[in-house]
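Cross-check.
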Amino acid sequence: MTGEHEHDPAGIRREPPRRFRPRFHWELLHCGVAGHALEGLDARQLRPQDRIFACEIGDVRWHRCLRCDSWLAVDPPPPPAREHPPDRDEIELPLRGKPLRDKIVLRLIAINRALHFVVLALLGSIILIFSANREQLRSTFYKVTADLTGGAISGEGHAQHGLLHELDRLFTTSSTNLHLLGAIFLAYALVEGIEAVGLWLTRRWAEYLTFVVTASLLPFEIYELTNKLSPFKIVAFAINVAVVVYLLFAKRLFGIRGGAAADEALFERDVGWQALERATPAAGP
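Predicted model, tokenized:
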């Protein structure tokens, strides 16, 4: 039986490897899309205090990405624009760790809400335009219907099911109901647009607004799923449930898991010069 630590014949102490736990690095994803965050590329000389993000080893200048911690060999600039790299108080550090993950996820949700805004705004506008010009479209509708069905259509109620029946219902619905339906679509589109802008800017109030609106619609989506299943409904429901769970637990809404104070503490832990210093390995001999 071997102990926790083993020694080879040369006397070197070996520790058993720890269990590998894969971790998704949002910093690498961001840098792969937008490029690295390097500082001091246009500086003629590097100072000792710049070693946390730039240094020279021999004739090679190395710059550290302030987001993903990668060190890149960079040629010195042919015409230096400044004598030294900017001081720490002049550098705007990029997001890292959990704050960067939250920003990416919130912007993905914002894109989803922006698509909702476009679709709902178009539907609301089409309904209102149709309601205002319904009489002019009525004769055209019945003529096209007659051509499609191969018969003469002289009145309403000719189609009992299918698309023609649904279109026929539009002409028999009162203008008041159509105006109300269009207004509801436009109002909901406005809310979705506000959510999209607030989430894109990572505002806390937008997280609460998105949670309340999305959670309030889940019972209606469950009702729709019980009546008739469809791939689109299932995907939409899964996305909305994931958004609600993420906002409630990962963003610590309503004081859950420490609330906003815990979220700010994590921000201070992952972002700032102290976080960079903790992630900087000790200098070699």
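Confidence is low (pLDDT under 50) at residues 152-158. The first strand starts at residue 6 and ends at 7. Passed to J.P. for a second look.
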